[in-house]
Amino acid sequence: MCNKDFQSPPSPPSTVQIKQGRKVLPDFLQNIKLKYVKLGYHYLLSHLLSLFSLSLIAIIFVQGSQMNYQDLHYLYFNLQHNLASIIILFLVLVFASTFYIMTRPGSVYLVDYSCYRGPDHLKATYYKFMEHSRLTDDFDETSLEFQRKMLGRSGLGEETYVPETMNCIPPRPSMAAAREEAETVMFGALDNLFKNTNVKPKDIGILVVNCSLFNPTPSLSAMIVNKYKLRGNIRSFNLGGMGCSAGVIAIDLAKDILQVHRNTYAIVVSTENITQNWYFGTKKSMLIPNCLFRVGGVAILLSNKMADKRRAKYKLVHVMRTHKGADDKAFKCIYQEQDDKGKTGVSLSKDLIEIAGNAVKTNITTLGPLVLPISEQFLFFMTLVGRKMFNAKMKPYIPNFKLAFEHFCIHAGGRAVIDELEKNLQLSPIHVEASRMTLHRFGNTSSSSIWYELAYTEAKGRIQRGHRIWQIAFGSGFKCNSAVWLALRNVRPSPNSPWEDCIHRYPVKLAY
């Protein structure tokens, strides 16, 4: 029977010097720090174009103020005799401006989004998780001990959610139960999204749904069309088997369609289904997902209407996608298969961290020129030239991505991945706080995790107008995808945020 109510048992020294009874400022040449030199260098180069433009305007103004009546008459005389050239130049400028305005990509706005939060009876405490695993009789003592150790250092807390069927003893995974999980998550997020935005389902022109492991017939997108009675000419898409980075892929697809079909709304639904994909075997590499993946999903409302710019939260700036599937090692590092006893699960390779690191490196190297300030690009280029031409042992320069983004939403795939990115991108603990706390509170919710992280940052009141947000996700294939957003206003959490009743408890101190 289902056991829904299963409970657990009971000041540094100052740099100011003291000399003969009076305070003396420190020697700046002795105390200067490189990071401040770099910061000043960044400001100088970043505002170089502005300084040049202001200088040019000042010179023109000074020259114009020194002109007398005869100079103005002479200028007018020259313009009369070159009227044809001036008209041609004017027409060329008008034509070029019109062509640019007509052909440039339209803006895509994120009006709002809603993350699903499960009911309390589906929360999986450590004790409940292990006790249910033991009572299924599918795991031997070695497998149970492995899961216990994995869970202890996974970074997950005591309040993550598992599917309804996992609260039954024994578990009863079925197609009907998987459909129920999908409907509960997707409809729960969509109901709240429609309520918060006051957008009618009939106004939606584009629908993109991504779920990697559960692809029934009719599709998940068809389930949404049927539930909300969406219009008959809706352009709907269902993405399957694309892993944890599929949420950014779905955003990219919706963006491309919005560029073609003007004045419309697009909804992106990102989720994962666990009911039929829980592993009941003893292969260690396939037991890891049991300890990481949890129930979650998000519904996102995008618009290309100029009228929505005033109420939208964000504007989509860039999407960068990297695919490493041509490499066999990368292709098989996250692989759905059957074990020796015919039990299906997802196997995670021991090389996953290394492969993920290479994919992230490629992605950020490609994204860098689009987002980094000129100063960082210049330093990186000069260091690269120096290594190639003069000294191959020269330490490579790592661009400071903190100058390009104010907020980072790193896919909460696991503690080790977050640790590596924090180290290699030289981020501070506050930059990865949203990722760690999302992993702790909701677990790895696959493609929707980056949205729980953004919701965390909003709930903390940290996003101000003009801030840039970097969402980076990676998953099977192997793929690494990035999305860059620009905050259009001081963003506050929407009603029924997933962090609404618990943000005051975060951040929590994590003990691994």
From TrEMBL:
Catalytic activity, as annotated: a very-long-chain acyl-CoA + malonyl-CoA + H(+) = a very-long-chain 3-oxoacyl-CoA + CO2 + CoA
Enzyme class: transferase
Top-rank taxon: Eukaryota
Any one annotated GO CC term: membrane
Gene Ontology molecular function: fatty acid elongase activity
Pfam families in the cross-refs: ACP_syn_III_C (PF08541), FAE1_CUT1_RppA (PF08392)
EC number(s) from the headed UniProt entry: 2.3.1.-
Gene3D superfamilies xref list: 3.40.47.10
Keyword set, alphabetical order: Acyltransferase, Membrane, Transferase, Transmembrane, Transmembrane helix
Main location: membrane
Pathway: Lipid metabolism; fatty acid biosynthesis
InterPro entries according to UniProt: 3-ktacl-CoA_syn (IPR012392), ACP_syn_III_C (IPR013747), FAE1_typ3_polyketide_synth (IPR013601), Thiolase-like (IPR016039)
GO biological process: fatty acid biosynthetic process
Localization per Swiss-Prot or TrEMBL: Membrane
Annotated family: Belongs to the thiolase-like superfamily. Chalcone/stilbene synthases family.
Protein name (Swiss-Prot/TrEMBL): 3-ketoacyl-CoA synthase
Organism expressing this protein natively: Nicotiana tabacum
Lineage: Eukaryota, Viridiplantae, Streptophyta, Embryophyta, Tracheophyta
